Amino acid sequence: MEKVAVNNFVRRQIKGSGKTYSDSLSFDAMAKDAEIQMGNGHYIDGYRDGVRIVTGSHSLTNQFICPFVKIEKNTELIAKVVRRRKEEEPYIQTRAQTGTPLQAGRVEYILYRHNVLAENDEQSTDAEWELISIHAIPEGVEKLPMGPVTMMRNQLELIGGTKAQYSSEEWAEAVGFWQQYASLDES
Length: 187
Hints:
The chain has helices at residues 27-39, 114-118, 148-155, 168-178, and strands at residues 4-6, 43-45, 51-55, 68-70, 77-82, 91-96, 104-113, 129-138, 181-184. It is α+β, with helices and mostly antiparallel strands and 187 residues long.
């Protein structure tokens, strides 16, 4: 079985971050679930070689908090200029100030292989795979597209991005999805 370790980047996914998180599972427990699920073949290849999207154990889904709300005509939105890490360029982040977080229908773990992380010296361990992100997918949503800002960072090979190319359909799906959903601002 291929070992999965915790990358430091995923540790930002805590309550109040606007990202998927769990109050009851440790990051090590999530990495172990990803390792088992990947070993059982419950994954698809991601946007490039060395990136995998692993489906989390169904029995754990209710232990994750889905941060997304469906944008309605009365949803109040806010925009902030933020950066993920100090060495990255700032970007405009849009969040919902109102709305009820959607129920998670499933959880996906995003894993990067060691050599992909090493391209930008972003590996945290010597493990073959590292957990870099967790996504609680709302019930009824088939696919959670990557955020357009992340796609831009990757395709333009900006600091914090991982080299990738996206089709016009992938861009359109991402923009379309993120016009309908937003993370709830819990600050």
